[in-house]
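Consider a concrete sample entry:
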Amino acid sequence: MADNQREMERREKRARKDRRHKRVIWILIAVIVLALIIMKVCEININSVKDHFTDAEGKFTLTDSVTQDNFPYNIDSSQNVSLVNINNQLGILTPSSFTVLNSKDAVSEYVFEHGYSNPVLETAGIYSLVYDQGAKAYRLDTAGGAVYEEDIPNSILCADVSKNGTVAIASTSKEKLCDITVYSKSLQKEFAVSTSAGYIIDIELSDNGKNVAAAVVSGENGNLKTSVYVYSLSQGADDVKPVALPQGSVLDISYYGSNILVIGDSYAGIIKKGEKYEDIYAKDKISTRCITHTPSGDLVLVYNSYNNSTDNVISYIKQNGKIKNEIKVSGNIKCVSAGSSLVSVLTNSEIITFNISSGEEKGRASTDDSAKSICSLGSEVFIHKQSLIDRSEAELN
């Protein structure tokens, strides 16, 4: 009899425990459903919640070490600010400093005050080159620390850095008009040439640092003309023949393998193997608004048919000079930035993101006229406005 009584008590105890467990489970389910309903009504992005409970290694955690979103990030200037993608982090150049910012939590990975009066930034791979245009100082850094800082004898006109840390500098010359000097990342002089052909307005290194191209402006019969000189560092400066460009201002030259893409204010073309110029867009067929490059090096060009037009075309141009896609978009486009598969444009009132290959619109985010520039890192877009760097709140479809 006593045994039966104890068995009945044990069963009742298990039943009470089971009921408590079920009650807790149903309460948790109700809380989760309520949270999902609130998120839906308030349009909270589930990805942002997931990121909040994800650590630096992408693992789920409920500890205090979760990634914190510290955007917007304060910077020391509201004017003359450049944003770049450097090794998948956000590079920020201001008139007084350069910062490498972790794009996930807005924590500075590396920062220095350059003290330059007219700083200009170039990047390639893990390297950043900041130089004082019109003065003599420049410095080479990686995304995590300084490599060196040096002065040259004459004033710097323009400069570039390659993915292996090679630096090319065009400067004024004591004996001729301009000097071109190329240094390795260990500061060994690898190439030097002086020229009186004209003034160098842009210089570009090949990815491997073995060739350098210079856009040179000179006068002929009362008109300005621009030519590109291509030098092999191993062969020297002998017998280098200039490649003539269409009339107009050159905005950018970019090396792709053995080819050089050229963007002018009213044309775009390619110099194949450093020898022959061919049109992509003939002179006066376009009015260039802004340009950028994808992480793999393809060109993205925004143009319209005439100045002040708000009917624009985003042209996706491959490294061989072939037009891969054209996307029509309206608005006063102030800036363009591209990732590997997405391209975003900044207008006076919004940021619009497209699939770069298909042209499909992927999202829009409202902004205001204080937004000056944008920078794409993967699927995220960062905005410079006033003295802040912020993350776009666009939800991509």
User: Anything to note?
Assistant: Helices lie at 2-42, 46-52.
